[in-house]
Amino acid sequence: MYLRELRMERNMPGAHPSAEGAVDAPAGAGDAWQDLLDMVVSRPKRGTERKQDRSKRTEQQILNAAMRVFARDGISRARIADIAAEAGISTSTLYEYYKSKEDLAYDVPILHLAAFLEEFREAVADKTTARDRLQLYLTMSADYAREHAEWARLLYLEIWPSVFVSETDLRHSIDDFSRVVIFLVKQGIAEGTWSARHDPYETAAILVGGLNQITVTWLLYRKPRNLTKAGNELVERMLKMLETEAET
Amino acid sequence: MYLRELRMERNMPGAHPSAEGAVDAPAGAGDAWQDLLDMVVSRPKRGTERKQDRSKRTEQQILNAAMRVFARDGISRARIADIAAEAGISTSTLYEYYKSKEDLAYDVPILHLAAFLEEFREAVADKTTARDRLQLYLTMSADYAREHAEWARLLYLEIWPSVFVSETDLRHSIDDFSRVVIFLVKQGIAEGTWSARHDPYETAAILVGGLNQITVTWLLYRKPRNLTKAGNELVERMLKMLETEAET
DNA sequence: ACGCCAATTCGACGTTTCTTCGGATTTCAG
DNA sequence: CTGAAATCCGAAGAAACGTCGAATTGGCGT
Lengths: 248, 248
Known about the structure:
The first copy, chain A, has 248 residues and is mainly α. The first copy, chain A, has helices at residues 2-11, 26-42, 53-73, 80-87, 91-97, 101-124, 130-147, 149-159, 169-190, 200-221, 227-247.
């Protein structure tokens, strides 16, 4: 898994307009894009497969309960016993499913992350330009956070930046989120939409950072009132700024 | 303290170019700016004053030890006993200074935050335009994170977004960080540097968010290699983009 | 220099929460 | 129906947090 990521990295950084093949031809671009989508959608899969139906149900109940409790109390203050009780099982049963509280906490966001990416993959099907895809991606992610606020609280306010997510599946999934943006920025540069004079990583940082910032602010203070609208406006504005930049 | 903040809020949000007085006249602007600086510099003061010298030394040792251990192990995995040992005191003595681990964790970043603001206040003295001040503020903050990486790990990767910093002194201090940016953006609008057609909060979100993003990436992966340089470039670019926006 | 009081320190103990373990119960294929 | 695997749970263990009262130390008035 880590190898795949590294290989990915090596393929991408060039991004000079001169770079041949990768994302130039419409067909080639489509393939690389589909490959990336496949990768980020397939990554968030859990390892352990449960054998019995009863068990699958229990697992769902644990995940639901955990999300509620973690979102309400925070990871550090949340008690395993509370989660187990809320899931309707005994504390020790929970340990049959997750070997520690940390493990559980890092597993909870993954399913929703996969659901978001799946939603995006469907919605993006009829978009062809990098600009359209990027706009959809960013606005959808703000909207998804609004719709699933409990999940977003957990992910954005507790897990996203945390050091200790390093070297876990979740960290890879989170990095994938930025990876998509970086890919699309490079694609947009190849398409001539944005200036090639700027580092795509820097551009991606502005986009992802700005969006995160208003999302976190919304989660903490419910300001701006309407996150979806604010997200749309922000994305529209940032993309417009990037285009204007090219003309300078 | 909370009252003062609210009053501040009420003064600021208007920000239409028509708003009179607040940040229009050079003199008035200077005063509002100095007031803001005074406020954000004075906020990070700890309540409890220790009586004996020995005690002040112990407190320092605790804070130093805590920063090391928290940065190394993360807040949740760090053990009070380890911190106490590293500080050369017994566990129970530590509880004379901080009533809980959480309390300690939230107190650690405050001193450095105050130091940064103090540094900034001195450095900004000879800057007169909102643009120059903003540029200095943002680049200095990236540089400060690089210089004090342990502190930055704690603040950016563990505390900044966390829900549970709500309602604490630290939260106010962190909010102050953005407040300065918002203030300067509004001032820049009043000075005609940036377009008045955009929400200053949105503009601030882009600036703060983008900078945070590369800082966090650097803390996690040491990429970009040179944070100071990358921060300077990013800030330069973002400010240029904002100016270009006005001409559209 | 001395003695007193408050500030500070610490070891021992109580409490909470996480985690493990062995056996009881349930499911399901054959 | 039956046996093996999967699942569940109560009780006990381990680890970390947090408290308390006694012992020590520093600062101040005389």
